């Protein structure tokens, strides 16, 4: 790879007299940048799962069907899957502050459109604009953190990122449930809008530029292949997850087929373009064994997280008869536990490395999923809470070590591409988790109903089988964590293939 010439940044701390960072600490300037990005990213990621609980209310208020309302979630995931692969290129061309302002402005505009939407079409448009901004924020945060954080302190900082990535989706349904219990659905956006505007103003005034732009060409064919490939896969998986009559539409299979073929073409083209350093998404990040193994485990975790996020509210409300608010409050402690554990896990990573954390985390995750298979129509809500807390603890022990190990094993010039790969696979894995768990639930529920089971019993049986499938798959995680190095792998900054 052609070395990028080192030039002083416009916000160079040496030029401004700002104190420099110690070998194991960020400078105050860099800490400010990371803090602004963390808070902003938490807000935008929260919106990805905030709509699920609101769909029944929206179906009534907007007079739309369940399949139409589901597009408010599907379109968000589709947009993320299409935009994130391009961010590896975007973050090379522009510096931190312009990228942040672009992302948050798009998110704020989308939030405003949603808040005042007169009907479904405008609300859907607002969600798409929101997702475009969200898709830029996560890779921007991860790239910035890896650029400014000394290797000895990366675990602590990535622990905070784990709060954003794992806790925000987990508490999204809780937040929306609380809002909908006292206010209309528009307030889900109206309460977020002022926060987004404040973030924009703060970023414009105080956010320093901590990354260095460099020339990069955009390959139009790669953009098209990326959109068709990742978009087709996510659309197809979402279609599998939305079946309600036991059948799968032709459009779903076409989308999966087109997505798979174009994704292969996209990979082949990126490998060819990487030889001249012009890849839209540099897949040489997978030449790092640590990155490849860590990302594979992260994808598995997202499958479990999004699948459980879908199933537990269905079980709580349909089988146990809990209200939306009760369900949200029941799942809240798990999200809070992940947030509380993440910083401590990050500090432990800096001391002992990833493997001593990953092994108990994988055991806890598998134990929780096996515990969920014991849920019955008359089970106590406390049993559900205990399982969710155990799963949350396992995820907290795994997210931070995996994020840090994956990106820390890459040379600095590939941080933006590594972040884009992680973000893209999150969307695909989230769609896959939803599709897998809901498809199993639906198929088994229909089979039991045909045998004469009541609606509640059929749903409980479908949820049991879905959790059983997830529990069996979780056993594959246990040996894979042993492939992650015991100690952190730190690639040299600024060079090396």
TrEMBL record:
Query: What keywords were assigned to this record?
Result: Cell membrane, Membrane, Transmembrane, Transmembrane helix, Transport
Protein origin, superkingdom:
Bacteria
> Which stretches are transmembrane?
32-51, 71-91, 98-122, 128-149, 161-181, 187-208, 220-238, 250-269, 290-316, 328-345, 357-376, 382-407, 428-449, 461-484
Q: Which ranges are annotated Low complexity under compositional bias?
A: 14-24
Location(s), subcellular? Cell membrane
Q: Does Nuclease show up as a keyword for this record?
A: no
Instruction: Name the major location.
Output: membrane
InterPro entries documented for this protein: EmrB-like (IPR004638), MFS (IPR011701), MFS_dom (IPR020846), MFS_trans_sf (IPR036259)
Name of this chain's protein: Drug resistance transporter, EmrB/QacA subfamily
As for family, the record states:
Belongs to the major facilitator superfamily. EmrB family.
Give the GO molecular function terms: transmembrane transporter activity
Indicate the segments forming the Major facilitator superfamily (MFS) profile domain, all copies: 33-488
Task: Return the annotated region ranges for Disordered.
Answer: 1-26
Q: Which PANTHER family match?
A: MAJOR FACILITATOR SUPERFAMILY MULTIDRUG TRANSPORTER MFSC
Organism name: Cellulomonas fimi (strain ATCC 484 / DSM 20113 / JCM 1341 / CCUG 24087 / LMG 16345 / NBRC 15513 / NCIMB 8980 / NCTC 7547 / NRS-133)
Q: What GO cellular component entries does it have?
A: plasma membrane
Question: Topology versus the membrane, per the UniProt entry?
Answer: Multi-pass membrane protein
């Amino acid at each position: 790879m052609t070395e990028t010439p080192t030039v002083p940044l416009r916000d160079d701390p040496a030029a401004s007299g700002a104190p420099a960072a110690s070998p194991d600490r960020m400078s105050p300037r860099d800490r400010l940048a990371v803090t602004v990005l963390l808070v902003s990213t938490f807000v935008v990621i929260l919106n990805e799962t905030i709509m699920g609980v609101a769909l029944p209310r929206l179906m009534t208020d907007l007079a739309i069907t369940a399949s139409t309302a589901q597009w408010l979630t599907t379109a968000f995931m589709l947009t993320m899957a299409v935009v994130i692969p391009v961010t590896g290129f975007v973050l090379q061309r522009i510096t931190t502050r312009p990228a942040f302002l672009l992302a948050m402005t798009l998110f704020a505009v989308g939030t405003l459109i949603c808040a005042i939407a007169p009907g479904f079409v405008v609300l859907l448009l607002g969600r798409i604009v929101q997702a475009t901004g969200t898709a830029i924020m996560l890779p921007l945060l991860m790239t910035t953190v890896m650029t400014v954080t000394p290797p000895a302190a990366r675990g602590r900082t990535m622990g905070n990122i784990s709060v954003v990535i794992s806790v925000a989706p987990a508490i999204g349904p809780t937040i929306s449930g609380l809002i909908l219990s006292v206010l209309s659905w528009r307030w889900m956006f109206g309460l977020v809008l002022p926060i987004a505007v404040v973030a924009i103003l703060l970023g414009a005034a105080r956010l320093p530029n901590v990354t260095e732009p460099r020339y990069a060409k955009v390959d139009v064919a790669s953009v098209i292949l990326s959109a068709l490939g990742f978009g087709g896969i996510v659309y197809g998986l979402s279609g599998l997850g939305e079946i309600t009559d036991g059948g799968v539409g032709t459009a779903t299979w076409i989308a999966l087929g087109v997505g798979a073929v174009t994704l292969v073409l996209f990979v082949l083209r990126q490998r060819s373009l990487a030889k001249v350093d012009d890849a839209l998404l540099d897949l040489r990040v997978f030449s790092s064994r640590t990155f490849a193994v860590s990302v594979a485990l992260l994808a598995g975790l997202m499958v479990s997280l999004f699948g459980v996020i879908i199933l537990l509210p269905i079980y709580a409300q349909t089988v146990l008869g809990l209200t939306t608010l009760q369900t949200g409050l029941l799942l809240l402690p798990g999200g809070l536990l992940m947030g509380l554990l993440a910083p401590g896990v990050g500090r432990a990573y800096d001391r002992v490395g990833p493997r001593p954390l990953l092994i108990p985390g994988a055991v806890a995750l598998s134990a929780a999923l096996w515990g969920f298979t014991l849920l019955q129509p008359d089970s106590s809500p406390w049993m559900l809470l205990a399982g969710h807390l155990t799963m949350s603890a396992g995820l907290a022990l795994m997210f931070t070590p995996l994020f840090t190990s994956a990106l820390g094993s890459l040379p600095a010039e590939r941080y933006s591409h590594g972040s884009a790969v992680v973000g893209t696979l999150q969307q695909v894995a989230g769609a896959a988790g939803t599709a897998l768990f809901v498809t199993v639930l639906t198929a088994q529920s229909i089979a039991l109903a045909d045998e004469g089971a009541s609606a509640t019993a059929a749903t409980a049986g479908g949820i049991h089988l879905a959790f059983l499938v997830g529990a069996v798959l979780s056993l594959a995680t246990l040996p894979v964590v042993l492939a992650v190095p015991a100690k952190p792998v730190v690639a040299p900054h600024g060079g090396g293939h």
